[in-house]
Specification:
With 502 residues, this protein is an alpha/beta fold. It has 17 helices and 22 strands. Among the domains are: 2-93, Beta-grasp domain (Ubiquitin-like (UB roll), Roll), CATH 3.10.20.30; 108-251, 2-Layer Sandwich (Nucleotidyltransferase, domain 5); 287-388, no CATH class. It has helices at residues 24-30, 62-67, 70-74, 145-152, 156-174, 189-195, 201-204, 239-249, 311-316, 328-340, 356-362, 384-408, 422-425, 430-436, 453-463, 465-474, 489-496; strands spanning 2-7, 13-18, 50-53, 77-79, 89-93, 108-113, 117-123, 132-135, 182-187, 214-218, 227-231, 257-262, 265-273, 276-283, 303-304, 325-326, 365-368, 371-375, 381-383, 417-421, 447-449, 478-480. A 6-stranded mixed sheet has the order 21-20-12-13-14-22, sandwiched between helices. It has a 5-stranded mixed sheet with strand order 2-1-5-3-4. A 4-stranded mixed sheet has the order 8-7-6-9, sandwiched between helices. The longest helix is centred in the C-terminal third of the chain and has 25 residues, at 384-408.
Length: 502
């Protein structure tokens, strides 16, 4: 083991030991050091994990050279996500104090543990909630659920660290002056399993299965209150989906309808009738929330999340001057506008079109080692690599919709309603989704965007016995479809990577 001295901004000097080859991100995660919320989850793009070697600085990585000046490189500046421990050393990091805002008193405390964000609210009534959120600390070791599973499967100690990273925010949320009458927690199957320290083999390797179906009250030694977790329908159809569907039912939805909860994973529920449901889940990847893209950021202040007018007008007004990043919905808005303007071809490559707008955008193109980029400001840009990552997300999303409808024997025009939820789904511009090809043109008049369905559905399940009873019977009515096992899936996926609904 090698001695590592870590000089922090908020915790003073920490001395620890690390094995050769251990990543610095993992080391800092174990020390419970928190960094900026615009994490790229270790892809070397955001620069927020910058650290300074005070001794034994390693040879700079290409990402270091792209991020820091020659003087900074000489002074030991490196990206933590690009380096592993080779020698004993001393480093300086600029961690943040994680603050969890106190919630106002409410009858029910509801929490949604997402792969990227944790959201919560104290509610007295269905439409009365102020939603709080913070980044999931586990972003430090991976952007998606599979990276968390790989980490957890290393050892019992690794799984315990992931559990602790979720328990600590919950403890902080519960450190308030009021005691809620009801307490509920939702999340995808991986987050729930990590929170409760459940067996993970059924989620980490095929054949996939869940060891516990939830839908009941449970307790933890480290949490002061018992809490309810809605049912888990399948290996990757979690309590967030069942809670969201509970809220959708209050809207008296017309059948058949499609409910889509969009996040790092996208879960689809196709409801044919009150007693017949098909469900599937697909890994969208972190790009859907902006994580891992060149200028990607989780939606928040000073983050581009949508384009209310045209990209051309925004550039003329220098409206991006204060932006520090681009969210997943922001990237889709940019791609849709560039495609409509003739600046992108169907495969997502920048082209010099014939229209004045496409020529204007072409003048902003720069060729870098990583490919071509279109500059929005001196520090903000969208690259062809970013477009490609978004088109991969679009391909698996659209394919999931097509396969689910095919399995049910209906076509998209036959749907009466499409409900979009999740922080991404409830904020994205529907026309942009259609332009890029996530949904067909038929979706324009059928789609309704609904925020916070998970928290609202949790509140209903906690405060209404009929909702909880309905959820309990629902599990037997849901047929889970594994779309990856569909015939010619890989070929169909490859054919779907392109702009537009094909």
């Amino acid at each position: 083991m090698l001695k590592i001295d870590v000089f922090t901004q908020n915790k003073g000097q920490l001395t620890t030991s690390a094995a050769p080859g251990q990543s610095f991100l993992d080391l800092f995660f174990r020390l419970q050091l928190s960094f900026h919320k615009y994490f790229c989850a270790g892809s070397g793009l955001c620069g927020q994990c910058a650290m300074q070697f005070l001794s034994n600085a390693p040879i700079p990585h290409q990402a270091d050279l792209a991020r820091f000046t020659p003087a900074q490189i000489d002074n030991g500046w490196r990206l933590a996500c690009r380096h592993v421990v080779h020698k004993a050393c001393a480093v300086r990091v600029f961690d943040e104090l994680v603050s969890v805002p106190s919630v106002k008193p409410g009858e029910a405390l509801v929490v949604d543990i997402g792969t990227t964000q944790i959201k919560w609210a104290a509610m007295n009534a269905l439409e009365e909630e102020r939603v709080y959120q913070s980044s999931n600390p586990q972003l430090a070791i991976g952007a998606d659920v599979m990276s968390r599973l790989v980490y957890a499967m290393q050892s019992k100690a690794a799984q315990a660290r992931l559990q602790k990273s979720l328990v600590l925010p919950l403890q902080k949320i519960l450190q308030t002056d009021f005691q809620p009458k009801f307490f509920g927690i939702a999340g995808n199957t991986v987050m729930i399993s990590l929170l409760l320290n459940l067996p993970l083999q059924g989620l980490a390797m095929s054949p996939y299965h869940i060891s516990w179906k939830a839908g009941t009250m449970t307790t933890m030694d480290r949490l002061p209150l018992p809490f309810y977790i809605p049912p888990l329908f399948g290996p990757f159809i979690g309590a967030d989906v069942s809670a969201g569907l509970a809220y959708i039912q209050t809207l008296s939805p017309p059948y058949p309808f499609l409910f889509i909860d969009v996040g790092t994973n996208a879960e689809f529920i196709l409801a044919l009738s009150p007693g017949s449901y098909f469900a599937c889940s697909v890994p969208m990847g972190p790009a859907i929330e902006g994580v891992g893209l060149s200028c990607g950021a989780i939606a928040g202040d000073q983050v581009l999340t949508k384009i209310d007018t045209s990209l051309h007008e925004l550039l003329e007004r220098k409206s991006f001057a204060d932006c520090v990043g681009i969210s997943g919905s922001g990237y889709i808005a940019l791609i849709a506008d560039l495609y409509r303007s003739g600046a992108l071809d169907t495969q997502g490559h920048f082209i010099s079109g014939l229209t004045p707008l496409s020529k204007l955008f072409s003048s902003r193109l720069q060729t870098k080692d990583t490919g071509r980029e279109l500059a929005l400001t001196d520090s903000l840009f969208i690259s062809e690599r970013d477009v490609e990552e978004v088109l991969k997300v679009k391909a698996v999303f659209s394919l999931a919709v097509k396969i689910l409808l095919q399995r049910a024997g209906i076509s998209f025009p036959f749907l009466q309603k499409v409900y979009l939820s999740g922080s991404f789904g409830s904020n994205i511009n529907i026309n942009d989704l259609i332009t890029v090809g996530f949904l067909p043109l038929f979706a324009q008049e059928k789609t309704e965007q609904i925020p916070n369905t998970v928290l609202k559905g949790l509140f209903l399940a906690l405060t209404r016995s009929d909702t909880q009873a309905w959820l309990h019977t629902l599990s037997s009515q849901v047929a889970v479809v594994d779309i990856v096992l569909e015939k010619d899936f890989n070929q169909k996926y490859a054919q779907s990577i392109g702009l537009g609904w094909a």
